[in-house]
């Protein structure tokens, strides 16, 4: 099986690359190998590689920076996934796309479900929602996973930040206006890998 992996140097991409390398041909791409802000480059690359599965872990995920760079954020989070979906549909490939819980406003008392109304409060959430909607309109075979509070042994994440603060500070000062469940990148990637390895 040939898998095109975007965002291969991020938390999810690294775990996916490590898990799948012994069982599939994985074409790993970061920003140097594939410019996801260039629609024509995406189309050319996908048509040359001809993957059976496209795993899109790439994202503009800096929430604060997204407010200042909405055009770059939408290019990576909204436009690129739609182009990947269109090319996946053209090849009858499976697209696995990672989205975010930031597409919700956080006002619901309990856990969100796929059927809940979306209402992003920031540019990042709005861009990811636009990507989801574009994929849904592409007719591609696609799996969209909404994630939050991802952590792994590498990269910037909440768990590593708290461990660093605990190691270097006598007192922890953190925001207490959010509730979340830290989720291991491996716990996300393993079932994803099993899904894309299964017959269509």
Explain how this protein is built.
The chain has one domain: Rossmann fold. With 200 residues, it is α/β, with parallel strands linked by helices. The chain contains 7 helices and 7 strands. α1 packs across α7 (185-197), α2 (39-49) packs parallel to α4 (70-91) and α4 (70-91) packs parallel to α5.
Strand and helix layout:
Layout: E1 2-6, H1 11-20, E2 25-29, H2 39-49, E3 53-56, H3 63-68, H4 70-91, E4 94-100, H5 123-136, E5 141-147, E6 150-151, H6 158-168, E7 183-184, H7 185-197
Parallel strand pairs: 1-2, 1-3, 3-4, 4-5, 6-7
Helix pairs in contact: 1-7, 2-4, 4-5
Number of helices in the DSSP assignment: 7
The CATH superfamily label reads NAD(P)-binding Rossmann-like Domain
Q: Summarize model confidence as the mean pLDDT.
A: 87
Q: Could you state the oligomeric state of the chains shown?
A: single chain
Class from helix and strand fractions: alpha/beta
What is the N-to-C order of secondary-structure elements (H for helix, E for strand)? EHEHEHHEHEEHEH
- The largest beta-sheet arranges its strands as 2-1-3-4-5
Instruction: Please count the beta strands (DSSP E, at least 2 residues each).
Output: 7
CA-CA gap between termini: 12 Å
Observed structural traits:
alpha/beta, Rossmann fold, five-stranded parallel sheet, 7 helices, 7 strands
Give a quick precis of the structure.
The chain is an alpha/beta fold and 200 residues long.
């Amino acid at each position: 099986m040939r898998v095109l992996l975007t965002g291969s140097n991020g938390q999810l991409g690294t775990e996916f690359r490590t898990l799948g390398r012994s069982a599939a041909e994985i074409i790993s791409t970061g920003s140097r190998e594939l410019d996801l802000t260039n629609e024509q480059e995406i189309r050319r690359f996908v048509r040359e590689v001809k993957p059976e599965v496209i795993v899109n872990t790439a994202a503009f995920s800096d929430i604060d920076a997204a407010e200042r760079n909405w055009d770059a954020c939408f290019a990576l989070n909204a436009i690129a996934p739609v182009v990947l979906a269109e090319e996946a549909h053209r090849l009858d490939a499976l697209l696995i796309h990672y989205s975010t819980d930031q597409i919700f406003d956080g006002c619901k008392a309990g856990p969100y479900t796929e059927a809940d109304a979306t209402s992003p409060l920031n540019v990042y959430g709005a861009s990811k929602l636009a990507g989801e909607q574009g994929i849904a309109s592409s007719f591609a075979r696609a799996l969209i996973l909404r994630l939050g509070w991802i952590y792994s042994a590498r990269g910037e994440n909440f768990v590593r930040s708290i461990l660093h603060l605990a190691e270097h500070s006598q007192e922890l000062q953190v925001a207490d206006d959010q509730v979340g469940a830290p989720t291991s990148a491996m716990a996300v990637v393993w079932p994803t890998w099993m899904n894309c390895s299964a017959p269509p």
